[in-house]
Specification:
heterotrimer, A mainly alpha (340), B mainly alpha (323), C alpha/beta (503), B: mainly alpha, two-stranded antiparallel sheet, 73% helix, C: 503 residues, alpha/beta, Rossmann fold, 3 domains, globular, ABC_transporter-like_ATP-bd (chain C)
């Protein structure tokens, strides 16, 4: 356990610092009240609004651990949200709506995974296709409108609450814990890390790299589907144009803040979720603290640069958890080209 | 026919075939009017795509360009509003800024040995944030000089060749010369062919990387100027996602997204193909706009698979080599 | 002397790559530089071309001491290199490659016409008149690319030309074309360093030979004064000083596997091989002879395209992938442990458990305590240092990394284990340990295919020795025949059809 805490320390410290900073400008930030039997407060708001990025970050972590990247998750969110909204607005039940939404995410993930693992196309290129076309597909489902619905069952996933806790919070916690347990209580995590660090050696040791690669993209697609359903449920409508727009970048950023290197290898789902919360706290905090929201992006940019410096293979190992990779013989050679 | 040219021919063939389909259905589409509009409407995209082509030829990527265009528009609008500077002076200031910005990203990519993707992602946030910090509103540009910049040359058949359309064509020409007719361009292709080999052959990797992203920054700045002429305003929320459209245009233009092979001219055709799809949808009237994205996505897939296939053919030829 | 090297020393963390090496090159000679992997050839070349900074010693060109700091500097001094993997860019045109960095420029623009003229001039005399310099280099066969690379190196440097395995991917006719070019350059007075593992070519082309082994200079002699047997003796040598100690008991267990005509086009000619229970089969041959390729085919790493591997009862063993081979009870410790063996960022424990875990499947994780026990057990048995199962394996020395890879396979308890150069770069103590381990394992019934370039090791450990040459199994030695002389003779025997197996 202490080892786990040590791994998460940089992210926890970052989050605490950001929270402290926001609290300094907006003293009521951490205050939580109960109104109408629901938890309300800025911190609760952060946890709720952070749900989409946190969910995306879970899947993205696994993809990045294999040295991949999934640019399509924002578009997949739009597709899946649209699919679920289409289902309920056409009178299908909640079960069918969820099945359609999740099924669409699974198919999208499978598409990406097949392009990457079987066709050997670079992940950034392979997922770019769905990133571009996906939004068109989502618009096709919604027929270009914002597809609204009034199905309470579906809306529950975005706007409802369970004993006062907003459902989206529960959803990302459950997803995060489930995926975290799945990869760490089974051997998946180890095998994913192994192919991310050295795919030829892993394959020679009998690791089924192809199937694992497809699996991580499917997982990413499913996480995007859940995020898409949550977002659609929250606004009771599927907005194919704006649902999940540019969230893939936030998700990647969350993973990077979480200390998982873009060069693959060691990962931590929990740290990525903390990264997502850091981003959301900055987003919300800037608004609350009365700063113009335009600072937001500049702060994000600064954050990325700091983390890049800490992770840089050329500058040697930095902080544990941020620059957590051990120095390796072929360190600098492991740029994107090295696999060609 | 060499495999390097094949994607370019494919690009041109697809464009011509698409134009033929359009023409058969709507004969009015074959006119200088449509062609002129195609150039004008896609001028900013074409210019930024030239910069992106050079970046991608080197095996990199530049996600910051969409934000830089928005920043440029806001920068120009605010400076023209708040200072007495002549637009030309503002343009010079702007281009110096965006070029330096690109150079800084190139420096970070090389200095930190980090993927261009994430470095330029930071650049994307920074440029967009900087645009927001200048203003959060749409700032109209009202200047006599701008009216002059909106002038055009009548073409036979009633079409208009605008200043910005011409600027785009000149940019493509400049890009073609830079990429294919200078030592720098050869160094860019060498970098895209493989950094270790390029180093062996005497390419200064750091210097070249900085110059590549500086060029992309310059073109993004120029594209921002053109965009401000096109829209007559500066708006920090403008051109979100243009980097993706530009990347798509480059790939549809036949350039290998992994670097080392491609033509700036192909990028022009890629841009025009994408513009053509949109024009067709406008002409048709009943088709929905999402088809643009889906068709572009399918074209992307087509080109990526085509190039993967060519690459495998190439490997097949050399497959006898020892371990 | 055109080039003189004295006392050249270069150490890397954990290994001495070059230890007081000397080398001379005269103008107008082709001088072969020979040695197995790890002998120090490439380190010497890299010190000479400025890619490595040497730790000690002198290099003099035309009597002047030099210390090139980069390939460019070396080139400017007159030392040009052509590597095995063509060091030009296939995505540029022939002319661009030839004139790269010095393209004729007018008004800032490259003049294509003059560039093409210059390129044609540079290619004149190389017999490449049919090559269109405006086409991309990648469109031409590797042989043409090699000659273009040579033309560039000669034009840029002009004194010393280093050819590093230039013929590795050429067929016989292409090789001969290349040799004509090299002979022409020799006549023009260049000093040429020729690195190749094809001994026929060394005898065919070179004037003198220098052999390196384990970072030390072994011998320099005129090629004509050497015979193949001596040369191979020098290259493989006696490292162990263990006086050809044959293993005590000869094993002749029941047949466990039978390869029938197993082979793969372009890599290893079809071979028959019977593996008996509990025996060690040694595979002797020079670098590039087909020894590693045999292991690759037997493990499904490059699946065979002909023949079959059968159980004693005749059922075929599926060998389409490493996974299939592992399922059949095989293990494989590859030659290049850095790229194909270890997973650097994972701990010793995780590396040891990796193959076991992959076989169990993701859903049945090896309990951490068990993995740890396993790791501690092998750390003790193989004396892996530091004895910390949680240490990232990339931080260990080469020898200890090798032990981790071995431990990974031993933990699988395979019935058939392929060891490709298991003792390379390992200190003498660990060396003996690993050989002892091989003995213990076979006592327990495991069969081992031992691929090694160290004859003493093969002799000490093997029950049978298969000799490979030119990608073909050429003879099998048993009993008293397993001795240095017989192995060297078998490797050296000039082949009737030296090019036939390559294609």
């Amino acid at each position: 356990m202490s080892q786990g805490l040590r791994r998460l320390a940089p992210q926890l410290v970052t989050l605490a610092a950001v929270v402290a900073l926001v609290s300094a400008f907006f003293p009521g930030f951490l205050a939580v009240e109960i109104a109408d039997g629901r938890l309300v407060g800025s911190a609760v708001d952060v946890l709720k609004r952070g749900a989409p990025v946190a969910l995306l970050a879970v899947g993205m972590t696994l993809v990045i651990a294999t040295r991949g990247i999934d640019l399509s998750v924002g578009a997949v969110m739009a597709i899946c949200g649209a699919a679920s909204a289409w289902a309920v607005s056409n009178g299908l039940g909640l079960g069918a709506a969820l099945a359609l939404g999740l099924g669409a995410g699974l198919l999208c993930g499978l598409w990406n995974g097949v392009l990457v693992a079987l066709f050997g196309i670079q992940p950034i290129v392979a997922t770019l296709i769905l990133m571009v076309a996906g939004r068109g597909v989502a618009q096709m489902i919604t027929e270009g409108r914002i597809l609204t619905f009034s199905h309470e069952g579906l809306a529950f996933f975005g706007a409802g609450d369970v004993v006062g806790v907003p459902t989206p919070i529960l959803i990302w916690i459950v997803t995060g814990v489930a995926v975290g347990l799945l990869v760490r209580r089974t051997a998946l995590g180890l095998l994913i890390e192994a192919i991310g660090i050295n795919r030829p050696a892993s394959a020679l040791a009998g690791v089924n790299a192809r199937v694992l690669l497809i699996a991580v993209y499917v997982a990413s697609g499913l996480c995007a589907a859940i995020a898409g359903i949550v977002v659609a449920a929250d606004i009771r409508g599927a907005d194919a144009n704006n649902a999940g727009l540019w969230l893939e970048l936030d998700a990647i950023l969350a993973v990077v803040i979480g200390g998982t290197s873009l060069l693959g290898g060691r990962f931590s789902v929990a740290a990525s979720i903390l990264g997502a919360l850091v981003i959301q706290t900055i987003d919300t905090g800037i608004l609350l603290a009365g700063f113009p929201s335009e600072f937001n992006l500049v702060i994000k940019a600064g954050l990325v640069v700091i983390i890049l410096v800490l992770q840089s293979p050329r500058l040697g190992p930095g902080l544990p958890g941020f620059g957590l990779r051990a120095p390796r013989a072929a360190g600098v050679a492991r740029t994107e080209k090295a696999t060609e | 026919m060499t495999s390097r040219l094949l994607p370019l021919y494919a690009t041109i063939a697809i464009f011509l075939a698409a134009y033929l389909v359009c023409y058969l259905q709507f004969p009015a589409m074959l006119s200088t009017r449509v062609l002129g509009n195609l150039l004008t409407d896609n001028a900013y995209l074409g210019i930024v795509a030239v910069g992106m082509t050079v970046v991608i030829l080197s095996g990199g990527i530049d996600l910051s360009v969409g934000s830089v265009i928005a920043f440029a528009g806001v920068f120009i609008a605010v400076l023209l509003r708040d200072t007495g500077l002549h637009p030309l002076a503002v343009f010079a200031l702007l281009l110096a800024t965006t070029t330096a910005f690109g150079a800084a990203m190139g420096g970070l990519i090389h200095g930190l040995a980090m993927p261009p993707f994430i470095v330029t992602l930071a650049g994307m946030f920074l440029a967009r944030g900087a645009a927001y910090m200048l203003t959060i509103d749409s700032v109209p540009i009202d200047h006599d000089f701008y009216d002059m910049l909106r002038s055009y040359q009548r073409l036979p058949g009633g079409g208009r060749l605008t200043v910005i359309g011409a600027t785009m064509l000149l940019s493509v020409l400049a890009g073609m010369i830079l990429a294919h007719r200078t030592r720098f361009g050869t160094a860019v292709l060498a970098l895209g062919g493989g950094a270790p080999t390029a180093r062996l052959m005497g390419v200064s990797i750091g210097r070249t990387t900085v110059l590549i992203y500086a060029f992309s920054g310059f073109m993004a700045g120029l594209s921002g100027i053109v965009f401000s002429i096109y829209t007559g305003s500066g708006y920090p929320l403008a051109t979100v996602g243009t980097e993706l459209t530009a990347i798509a245009a480059v790939v549809i233009g036949g350039t290998l997204l992994t670097g080392g092979s491609g033509y700036v001219f192909g990028t022009l055709i890629g841009v025009l193909t994408m513009g053509l799809i949109q024009t067709y949808i406008v002409f048709d009237g009943s088709l929905s706009s999402w088809w643009t994205k889906i068709v572009i996505g399918m074209l992307l897939l087509l080109f990526i698979l085509l190039q993967k296939g060519l690459l495998m053919l190439g490997h097949g030829r050399g497959a006898v080599s020892a371990t | 002397m055109l080039l003189t090297i004295r006392d050249l020393t270069k150490t890397f963390p954990g290994t001495v790559a070059l230890d007081g090496v000397r080398f001379d090159l005269a103008a107008g000679e082709v001088h072969a530089l020979l040695g197995e992997n790890g002998a120090g050839k490439s380190t010497l070349i890299k010190c000479l071309t400025g890619m490595h900074a040497r730790d000690g010693g002198q290099i003099a060109l035309d009597g002047q001491p030099i210390s090139p700091g980069s390939t460019q500097e070396a080139q400017a001094l007159g030392i040009g290199t052509v590597y095995q993997e063509v060091n030009l860019l296939p995505n540029l045109t022939v002319a661009e490659n030839l004139t790269f960095g010095r393209q004729p420029v007018r008004f800032g623009m490259v003049s294509r016409r003059r560039m093409h003229e210059e390129a044609r001039e540079m290619l004149a005399g190389y017999g490449l008149d049919h090559v269109d310099v405006a086409r991309e280099l990648g469109a031409y066969p590797v042989a043409v690319q090699q000659i273009v690379a040579i033309a560039r190196a000669v034009a840029l440097s002009g004194k010393v030309l280093i050819l590093d395995e230039p013929t590795a991917s050429l067929d016989a006719r292409e090789t001969e074309t290349l040799f004509e070019v090299v002979r022409g350059l020799r006549a023009r007075g260049l000093g040429i360093i020729f690195i190749s593992h094809f001994l026929d070519q060394v005898f065919d082309l070179t004037d003198r030979v220098t052999v390196l082994r384990n970072g030390r200079h072994i011998v320099t002699a005129g090629t004509a004064a050497l015979n193949r047997v001596e040369l191979i003796h020098h290259m493989l040598g006696h490292e162990l000083e263990m006086a050809e100690a044959r293993r005590g008991v000869q094993r002749d267990g029941p047949a466990m596997l039978r390869a029938e005509g197993l082979g793969r086009r372009g890599r290893i000619a079809p071979f028959d091989l019977t593996v008996r229970r509990g025996e060690v089969i040694g595979l002797a041959g020079l670098l590039g002879s087909g020894r590693t390729e045999t292991g690759d085919v037997l493990f499904g790493r490059t699946p065979a395209d002909r023949g079959a591997l059968r159980e004693p009862d005749g059922t075929a063993v599926e060998l389409r992938s490493p996974r299939a081979a592992i399922a059949a009870g095989f293990g494989y410790a590859p030659e290049d442990r850095k790229t194909d063996g270890i997973v650097a960022d994972l701990s010793v424990r995780e590396n040891i458990a990796l193959a076991l875990q992959a076989r169990r499947g993701w859903a049945r994780p090896l309990p951490r305590a068990e993995a740890r026990r396993l790791a501690e057990d092998y750390i003790r048995r193989l004396d892996i240092r530091p004895a910390d199962p949680e240490k990232a394996v990339g931080l260990l020395s080469g020898g200890n990394q090798q032990k981790v890879v071995l431990a990974r396979w031993l933990a699988m308890n395979p019935r058939f284990l392929i060891l490709d150069e298991p003792t390379r770069g390992i200190d003498v103590g660990a060396h003996a340990e690993i050989l002892r381990l091989v003995g213990d394992l076979t006592d327990a019934g495991m069969s081992i295919l031992l691929i090694s370039s160290e004859l003493d090791e093969l002799i000490a450990a093997s029950d049978r020795v298969i000799v490979v040459r030119d990608r073909r199994h050429v003879s099998e030695l048993v009993g008293e025949d397993i001795c240095t002389d017989r192995i060297v003779q078998a490797i050296a025997r000039p082949d009737a059809d030296p090019e036939g197996a390559r294609a």
